Amino acid sequence: MLRFGSVLRKQDIDFVLDHEGTKYVGREINTMIKEKIEEQYKYLDSKRIEGHTYEVGEKYDGRIWLYDADNITNGGMEGIEEINFPDELYQDAKEGDLFTYQNGKYQKK
Length: 109
Hints:
It is a single chain. The longest helix is centred in the first third of the chain and has 29 residues, at about 20-45. The mean pLDDT is about 90. This protein has 2 helices and 7 strands; from the N terminus they run ββαβββαββ. The chain has a 5-stranded antiparallel sheet, with no helix packed on it. Strands 1-2 form a two-stranded antiparallel sheet. It is α+β, with helices and mostly antiparallel strands. The protein has 2 domains: about 10-45, no CATH class; about 50-109, no CATH class.
């Protein structure tokens, strides 16, 4: 069965699965995914600023966009899609609600 990342080699007029090449590509893809996830976490950590107020801009399908009301640049607030927003706060959050980031957590204002 072929999957994303499968490596094929030409053998005569046919193509055959290269198992070693496929394993190598799979490891490389996993490494790249892990690096991107780490970059995303570092980026989000840099945007979660102690004492700042964040406004809910959008909320849908388990996702939430927060805008830093204390960091207005170029005529607008910078927004992030927060991937570690607490479920208990998410349930009641509505567009326009304000949250403060204190002691490493969001708290409703």
